Amino acid sequence: MIKSFLSFFFLLSFGFSSFSQEEFHIMYGDTVYMKKVYLIVGEDVDNYLERFIMKKGVADGHWKIYYDKGKTKLKIEGNVENGLQEGPWTSYSSSGKKSKEINFRKGVLHGEEKYFNSNDGSVLIQYTYTNGSRNGYYFVTHANGKKWQDGYFLDGFPNGTWNYWDVDGKLIKVRTFSKGDLVHEKTFTNK
């Protein structure tokens, strides 16, 4: 029963795009196994999933998903508690380098979301979430590691001062937002 359930329903995907905020209910018959998880339906998952734990009919424990059936190339890992993603979930490139880390609290995005440079492991993009909404400091870097933009979110909207730099690190624009509304913008000429 569980094998049929797995092969029909699970293939976790942890690509570059952000997680959907939609709620999913993973069911077998009339039983709900996981709620509010960020999954993509796939086939043949039991060959790629190392661990699937059930406690009182609910998914629980540490999960590992692999790129290959031999389970030698880790793709994603993270914890599930009472059917909900909990704590850090990490994805890896096919070469084994960390590519993304995102945090959950009771199945909801909470904490930092980071995307990593595949060459040196530095953070390329970082967001902060509070109860599923972007809140706090945000930044993006150019491929050379120099900052491209930074700013703050409040309840999911840009808020306060946002700075933008060119690839050489020169400040080229400053924008000021109030709860998502642009209230001021200044562009700099770098000659």
Which key features would you list for this structure?
single chain; 191 residues; mainly beta; 13-stranded antiparallel beta sheet; two-stranded antiparallel ribbon; disordered N terminus
Please give a structural write-up.
It contains 1 helix and 15 strands. Mean pLDDT is 77; it is low at 1-43. The strands form 2 sheets. Strands 3, 4, 5, 6, 7, 8, 9, 10, 11, 12, 13, 14 and 15 form a 13-stranded antiparallel sheet that branches. The protein has a two-stranded antiparallel sheet with strand order 1-2. The N and C termini lie far apart (68 Å). It has one helix at 2-9, and strands spanning 25-28, 31-35, 53-55, 58-66, 74-81, 84-92, 98-105, 108-116, 123-130, 133-134, 136-141, 147-154, 157-165, 171-178, 181-187. The chain is flat. The chain has 191 residues and is mostly beta strands.
Number of helical segments with 4 or more residues = 1
Strand content: over 45%
Low-confidence stretches: 1-43
CA-atom Rg in angstroms: 20 Å
**Fraction of helical residues:** under 10%
Q: Describe the global form.
A: flat
Distance between the termini: 68 Å
Mean pLDDT: 77
Query: How many DSSP E strands?
Result: 15
Counting helices, strands and paired strands, the structural category is mainly beta
Order of helices and strands: HEEEEEEEEEEEEEEE
Q: Report the major sheet.
A: 13 strands, antiparallel
